Structure formats: C-alpha cells, structure tokens
Amino acid sequence: MYRHQFCELVTGQLRCKWEAPAVWQELSDHIQDHQAALMAEGMGRDQAEEAAVAAMGDPEELGKALDVLHSPWPWRIYHAVRAVAIALLVLALCLGLGSFFGNGDSVNALLEDLGYALKERDPQYIMDRYVLTDSDTVQTTGTVTGGGAIGPYRLSPAGEALFLAQENGDTRLAFLVSTFHPQPWLESLYPDGQPCSAVDDLGNRYGPDQVSFLSTGGRLRDLCRVFLEDPDPAARRFTFTLDTDRGSITFTVALEGGEHT
Q1: Going from the N-terminus, what domains does the chain have, and what CATH number goes with each?
Q2: Which of 2, 41, 157, 234 is most buried as measured by Cβ atoms within 10 A of its Cβ?
C-alpha cells in the first residue's frame, strides 16, 4: 500500500474535515521518517515504504481512533460563533459605531482577524502551509487549466502547478483548485476519497492510488490540494480527471519546457 493511499484511508474516517489536512501531513511525515530509517539500514525504497506503512497498523482502525480525538463539533461551533462575531463587528464598523469600541484597538483587532480569514483562502498561503515542506525542491512550474461544475459546486484552477522533488528521491506534482457554491446550508465539496486519475503526454496512466484530491475544509469557498505521486519527470503535460457521483471534470497541467506531441 502506498503512503498517500494509507493516509487517505485514515483521514477518510475523520468527520472533522478541518483537521484532515494536518493529520494527513503528520501521518505522511511519520511514514517517510520510518522509511528513511529503513533505507539507511539497506532496505530498498519500495520495500521500506511498504514496511513503514505496515508498521502503522490498520488504517480504518487508526482512523476511527483519531476520529474520537478530533470531534468535528468543537470546530463547527467555533467557526459558527466566529463567523457571527465577525459579521456583527463588520456591521458595527460599517455603521460608523466607532465610539462603541471606546478606542481603536478593537477596530484594529477586527481588521487583523479579517486579514487572517482572507489569508486562509490565499493560494500562496495554502501552498506554503499545506503543500510545501522543508524537504521539497521546486523543479519546475506549470499552468493549470480546466475545471467546471459538479452539481452546485464550481471548480477552477487556483495558481500554478509545482513539480516537486524531495530529499528521499520522491517526486510530486501539486496544484490547487478553488471550489465555490452559493448555498450556505451545503457543506464543502469534500472530494477526498473520490476516484481521481491522471494521464500524461507520454502515455503513462496514474490511478487513484497515486492521485489525491484533498479539501482544506472551507464551506462556500474552499481551496483543494491535488497531488500526483511519482509522476514521470520526462512528461510535460498531465490531464487529471475527478469522478464523483455528481459528475466528472478535468484539469490539465502544462509544465514549462514545452509539450510532447
């Protein structure tokens, strides 16, 4: 079982989707550290990864245990109260009730909070926080096109694609997808676990065990992370297909350096 497939199965058990990206990354880092230690002892790369994943135990049982520790309700209550508080403060500010605050400190705090909320939806911030690690080296970048609608959800590319190399020799292609729906009573799209595949211009095909599509936990608007593990470094064009029960959409990544014909 691949490392990222194991992490997908574990985080798929979590009801608290806001915690899923952090849990996914923590599990992945732990497996990579174990894999590196086994490789240092002379074990092959694939064998070391398989052994490191196996040492983590059953992914569904681990996911259920982590779900107990990461209940979604505190986060839901927190985000609901926070959203109401920000809305009320913005309304008071727009109505010119500065005297209600007594001084400028509360207004400054409000502006800082609003700035943080905007930063949480900034592609570069998400890329730096949830995609790049200290061991990543950007080999090349590329443009992302495509997208479309899945039911009430609109999906579109957000920023450029990154072809990454890691210290342990792994490679990864990563990009962000923005999702939006105008119905506040709906949850985020949460494409986690939905079949996602890819094909490149050299004819290589990558199945769901190599492609992941992860939500960062937004509601009306969200930024999702798309990863392709171990892409062919010679390929310059990749087409991703996300299949859901509401329909399918595709994204195309064209890396710098031209395309094969």
Answers
A1: 72-119 (no CATH), 123-261 (2.60.40)
A2: 157
